[in-house]
Amino acid sequence: MITFISAGRKSARLIEGFRSFMDDSAISVITTAADAEESPCGCFARDLDTLTFLFAGILNTKTWHGIQGDTCTTHRALIRLGTEEPQPVGDQERALHISRAERLKKECLTDVTIAINQTYGIMAHILPASETIGGWSVTTPSGRMPLTRYRTTYSDDTHACAIHAPPDSIPHASTESIETIRNSDVVIIGPGRPVTGIMPALMCRGIVEALKEVPVISFVPFTGERSTTPEMRAYTPDAVAECPAYDQFTDLYLMDARDPLAFDGALHVDTRMGSRTRRESVAWDIMALAEGLKKE
């Protein structure tokens, strides 16, 4: 079984490439609800939604978020009534958000996610890294803001200088996510959203310890997202604990062949995934590397 620690559209593209030659039942994906937001319109969780739609075969692969062909009747009605939304939400997608919010009144996030997967007939294993919903924040060059607002404002992590856990404490990883990692033949971390997507998953208590037990392939974090200098970045929660360094658990680093960054030990690969052919090609290349790690 292959497990992805996923965030953003780049991860979704890579996973789609693997689906071209792997059964969904052999794929597990762990992501976070760190940027989730609960409102009268339901519980919005961007990365969980994207993965759900991807494996259900209804993802809008032109934008890599939302449902293909979804309508925005409710969104437009809200605007007419003077209620603004940060971004348009499709009607079918909104139904998922409402259902998730209702289920969360009685069940934990993991159980709700599994139930939603079953409703969509999804065979892959999509899991939240923890049961915690929202509460994270991001420091940018212009100040600090909620993670949810950052993700709706910026299309990548170029402006993210630091990620902060919820004020009370760093979340504990769910039992299911820990067991999934430990039972994996290989874990692939990334690509995409290294600060606001991947890091909240890695920071969950227990994730790093589990990753040390299995082969791990990591996309070099922050590649292509370096408008702020490394000295400005502080990937630590407030006075709680340091964020995990990738070298604690990574067996093989990958980075884009066109990237000018010198990174000792990293394998340069062509990571362009703009077409189905490219996504499949990148996935096959990584699969070959994963097989090599398993043999070692």
Automatic annotation (TrEMBL):
UniProtKB keywords: Magnesium, Transferase
Keyword Magnesium in record: yes
One Pfam family hit: CofD
One MF term in the entry's GO annotations: LPPG:FO 2-phospho-L-lactate transferase activity
Protein name (Swiss-Prot/TrEMBL): 2-phospho-L-lactate transferase CofD family protein
Organism encoding this protein: Methanogenium marinum
Lineage: Archaea, Methanobacteriati, Methanobacteriota, Stenosarchaea group, Methanomicrobia
